[in-house]
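Thread: "does anyone have the structure for this chain?"

Original post by V.I.:
We have the sequence but no experimental structure in hand. Need at least a predicted one for the grant figures.
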Amino acid sequence: MIRFGVISEQTSIKNGFFKRRKITAQIMRLNEFDADVLFVFLPITAEKLNDLSEAKLRKLMLSAFKELKLWNVTRAILTRAVKSAYAPVGTTAPGRPFNIDGRPSNIDGRPPQNDAEHMGIQIVTGEQAFYRLIPQAVQRAYPMLNTEKLKSKLGISDRGMSKITEYLIDRLCFDSKYISVYTDNLRAAAVLRDEVFDRTGLTIGVGLLNAANNNTDVFIDVDRRKIRIGRDIFVDGFEADIGLEGYDVDSLELCECFGLKDIKIKYLRNGNKRLTI
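Reply from O.Q.:
Generated one for you, tokens below.
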């Protein structure tokens, strides 16, 4: 059974934050996904979240993490309002980061990056779903380019040469004959170049990160989680056709929580702006 939490603001509080500080929780059963979702409600509205001091906001979030632990929930997502006010270090979310490096961790045996990890809570960011959907987004972008698909130029920047770049090339190498990778790890890039040539006959270009060529039709920045299409279309998010009614949460984070693999992009985003592609 799938089990995760959602940390949400209150939609309305009659007595105000400082008169009612109790965090509440409620389990919702979603039979469609065979999932139990624990909603943890902060005793504050979205309008008041950003007015809190860092100390008060951090204390509030710690209480929410403790509530998750009481229900034996170890994975959670944040509503957009909570995310905009509070962002754990190590995520791509905006907000105020609270770093507690140096404390012992019970997640993957590595030092925790934030309060959530220190308490054994994983904040789901939708990052895996985002990278998995990049080839689909690029396919949607090709009709906008003033060039044939096979003649289009594709650039990928990846400082450390992660497995993500290998995945992207595997998915896109049959659509574009001109692919270049920019990285600080030239050795790993050269190994990947040879593997791709042996497998497909395609020769990919390799260059240093600071020599990234802007003269590309599509440019994927793996480290910053951004895509440039053409000259002036920038993409930093996708929306899938899934949601939780009444809650403003990121659809890709939901896809990861539900373990969905066959995801279709509903639309592309640049910040909060929908892109009609």
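V.I.: this helps a lot. The CA atoms of residues 206 and 222 lie 15 Å apart.
O.Q.: and The longest strand covers residues 35-45.
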